[in-house]
Write a structure and sequence with these properties.
Structural class of chain A: alpha/beta
Strand content of chain A: 25-35%
CATH superfamily of one domain in chain A: P-loop containing nucleotide triphosphate hydrolases
Number of helices of chain B: 13
Strand content of chain B: under 5%
Pfam families (chain B): ABC2_membrane
Distance between the termini of chain A: 39 Å
Helix content of chain B: over 70%
Largest sheet of chain A: 6 strands, mixed
InterPro entries (chain B): ABC2_TM, ABC2_TM_bact-type, ABC_2_transport, Nod_factor_ABC_transporter
Protein name (chain B): Transport permease protein
Number of strands of chain B: 0
Oligomer: heterodimer
Shape of chain B: elongated
Keywords (chain B): Cell membrane, Membrane, Transmembrane, Transmembrane helix, Transport
GO molecular function (chain B): ABC-type transporter activity
Chain lengths: 255, 255
């Protein structure tokens, strides 16, 4: 595989907070233009990985490159290539939707911020609400604005940290649609989620982060093969990803 | 990194525009900041004033500098508040994962503090004029007063930045301002220090507010300023530099 086909490459990534290890050697690669889902329980370190890859946090050891740039050596180039949609919708609630987008376009030093904002408002069906303050938006609208703000300047790699947490089912399906469209247009999407169904629905590749390491990494099909096949099959039911996950991390909960 | 440096001023301009919108759309913050000092001014002039012996016939003239400092001290707490919210809502992370000059984010908040405190100061001076404040001072003296107040605002604003960045709750972010608001009461701002008992008097005469208030009072009444102004400038500059260094450190720690 040539370098350009790899959007994100992570090798031996380690990070501790106050001597408590969070990441103990994380390795994975993300293909350009694919949707990569990082799956893990709350507190598994998903956000830590996102923060390191988006240059907000420095790793203790190991290497990470995004769009071919080392995150520690060339953070400026990495920031040019990415955008981050954090766990909490980071929209300015006092500004209107339009003003939020214009602000992002100005900060990305684009030449026609008004036009960029107008186009994104239309694409995310926010034109009607464009001139209302974001405080009046519903949760789903806020998330749409949040993601629209991330798309300003057409970054090559987009990080979505738990993009559907706290959204109602409708909002969730909307976000899924957006994510699929992004990947169809060649954008690399790095997604973290605790919803197994979400990974199953969206991701080309799924990695499971558990106790500081990636314990499984592959396509949904490959992951399903990892599940111990039953010798005698009386039922047609396929194992869901949820069952795979739980069997791997050794939990015996009722589903 | 070179490229992002060049955008410092345009990025800061965007940030300033953002927080100025915050102020203009929530005028209640300016009213809150302005009303308390005005109430103090009314209270001291019309209730306590008759009993206070300052050796001047115009108590409003005597009191105004201290009132201005109180208004600035309560005004900067909004900087801490806004910064804290930015941090909590992930807006700082969003900005810092973008190819912008990171320090522009802080400077935007600091400039906003200067502008909003300037507005409050003007309003209070107008009210003081109605209450009988008169000054024979010329343009140069007024400029010197503006300079001292600017330095004082900058010093307190950088303290506010530290508080906003290191606080864990909204209340914690603004609590730092209470002792600062209280400082003018134990100074020559309202009564001459001569009337105070020994240890209190020593504190009052040697704390920054007394020299700042004394310098402004002398400038506004066209008296010779003497060494006091250098002491005032040294206090403001010293506090400002120390707070600036600590604020920068707190900001780095947050990234």
């Amino acid at each position: 595989m040539t370098k350009n086909e790899i959007a994100i490459s992570v090798q031996g990534l380690k990070k501790s907070y106050m001597n408590i290890p969070v990441l103990t050697g994380v390795d994975f690669e993300v293909k350009t233009g694919s949707i990569f889902a990082l799956l893990g329980a709350n507190g598994a370190g998903k956000t830590t990985i996102v923060k390191i890859l988006s240059t907000l946090l420095k790793q203790d050891s190991g290497h990470a490159t995004v769009n071919g740039f080392d995150v520690s050596a060339k953070p400026g180039n990495v920031r040019e290539s990415i955008s981050l949609t954090g766990q909490f919708t980071a929209v300015d609630e006092i500004l209107t939707g339009r003003e939020n987008l214009i602000m992002m376009a100005s900060l990305r030093h684009l030449s026609h911020p008004q036009k960029v904002a107008e186009d994104l408002l239309k694409r995310f069906s926010l034109t009607e609400a464009a001139d209302r303050s974001a405080a009046t938006y519903s949760g789903g609208m806020r998330r749409r604005l949040d993601i629209a703000m991330s798309l300003v300047g057409k970054p090559q790699v987009i990080f979505l940290d738990e993009p559907t947490t706290g959204l109602d089912p409708e909002g969730r399906i909307e976000v899924w649609k957006i994510v699929k469209e992004l990947a169809d247009n060649g954008t690399t999407v790095f997604l973290t989620t605790q919803y197994l169904e979400e990974a199953e629905q969206l991701a080309d590749t799924i990695a499971i982060l558990h106790e500081g390491k990636i314990i499984v990494n592959g396509t949904l099909g490959a992951l399903k093969k990892l599940f111990p096949p039953a010798k005698v099959e009386y039922i047609e039911k396929q194992p869901t990803l949820e069952e795979i996950f739980l069997s791997i991390v050794g939990k015996k909960e009722e589903i | 990194m070179e490229t992002t440096k060049n955008y410092f001023f345009s990025d800061m301009y965007v940030m300033l525009g953002r927080s100025m919108r915050h102020i203009l759309r929530s005028m209640d913050t300016i009213i809150t900041v302005t009303i308390m000092p005005i109430m103090f001014m009314l209270l001291f002039v019309y209730v306590f004033g008759g009993a206070i012996q300052t050796g001047t016939d115009n108590y409003v003239n005597y009191l105004l500098p201290g009132i201005l400092l109180i208004s600035i001290a309560s005004g900067v707490s909004y900087t801490a508040y806004r910064l804290f919210l930015d941090m909590q809502r992930g807006i700082l992370e969003r900005f810092n994962s973008m190819p912008i000059a990171r320090s522009a984010v802080l400077w935007g908040h600091v400039l906003t503090s200067l502008v909003s405190n300037f507005i409050s100061v003007i309003v209070i001076i107008l009210v003081a004029l109605i209450m009988g404040f008169r000054s024979p001072a010329g343009v140069l003296s007024w400029l010197a007063v503006a300079g001292i107040l600017t330095l004082f605002t900058l010093a307190l604003t950088w303290i506010a930045v530290i508080a906003g960045l290191s606080a864990k709750t909204v209340d914690g972010a603004t609590a730092f301002s209470y002792p600062i608001i209280f400082l003018p009461f134990i100074s020559s701002a309202f009564v001459p220090t001569k009337s105070m008992p020994g240890p209190v008097r020593i504190f009052a005469e040697n704390q920054p507010v007394t020299s700042i208030v004394g310098s402004i009072r002398a400038l506004l009444s066209n008296q010779t300023v003497g060494n006091e102004i250098w002491l005032a400038l040294a206090w403001c500059t010293g506090i400002m530099l120390l707070a600036y260094i600590l604020a920068k450190r707190a900001y780095k720690k947050r990234l």
